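1st attempt posting a full record on here, be nice pls
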Amino acid sequence: MDNGARLRLLGEGAQFDVSAPSTVAPQNPLASRPGSIYEALSADGKRIRLLKVLLSNACRHNCAYCATRCSRDIPRASFRPEELARLTIELSRAGLIKGLFLSSGIVGDADSTMARMIETVEILRHKHGYTQYVHLKLLPGISEAAVAAAAGLADRLSVNLEAPGPERLSAICPDKSFERDLVRTLRWASQRVGGGNVRSGLTTQFVVGAAGETDRELVEMTWRLQAEMGLARTYFSGFQPVPDTPLEGHVPAPPARERRLYQAEFLLRSYGFSLDEIIFDEADMLPRGQDPKLAAALANEEMFPIEVNSAERWELLRVPGIGPTSAERILAVRDEHKLSSLRHLETLGARTDRARNFVTLNGRYYPREEPAQQLSMGL
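the predicted structure (as tokens):
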């Protein structure tokens, strides 16, 4: 198999590692490009193009949902570290990519496969002087020494937890230990972030809808990881059935579920919401008909309306339609100029169709009968 065919095969296999929320950029290779270039989001929210690829799609694991599970009859291929490093440099010099997102199936044992991934980046950094973005996926069950080596090379590290706890993980990945193979690796990585290492932080990813988990389980684990390990963000990959796997007849996760999870994660990460402010229905799911911020506001009607000219930052961030950027603008402007109309709020970036039911402006209230039903999710 030539390099082009391997790049397409191993690039297509990498689509299940999320580089941007599907609500922002579909996780499919970009059309009219080599089948391994995907859109991602930089730390400041800009779209960039990455070479997202597996070092190998051979794997010893047999996860029930996975397209590269060891018992599935598919073409297998691998790159040698020097081959993949050279291809990355060629695509970078051609202006097609701004970075590398590298993962792999586990061939043999986890540390030896991770060593080949690390060698790929070492060749890029030290032989070719490559300074662009590198995201390394840490493989389950690797040693602390392997984590340390990866942290010295990558701009971002991630560990796929896949499920929100041991029982849920065992339903889809029976040969992986949630604590030993995944959480411990994530904790080791969190200890390496900072001091010039891993400048874009640490992330994780869940498969949504494969193991029967609830939204509450996913959100609670997300909150715990942010609080205990300082995760930069959590990604949610909606389950899609793959032929010739045990879950090929399983119902796919609806896109709306994935979207609500991202909105809840954003409230925890960027709005300062606490876990107990996130509203779940009687089935422990996020309401599908309301975004989580609106649901929280309607469940705490005693807080509203809030006077924009005197509210504290945390209060402004509880108002549907006011995000971190517009809140900062309001705080900067209102000391010199009283805000007295919805137009003032609009010029500062607030969504007045969402905010008007929850605020007063210089004592005046501008409600509509029905509040807006969507939160504009900054990313």
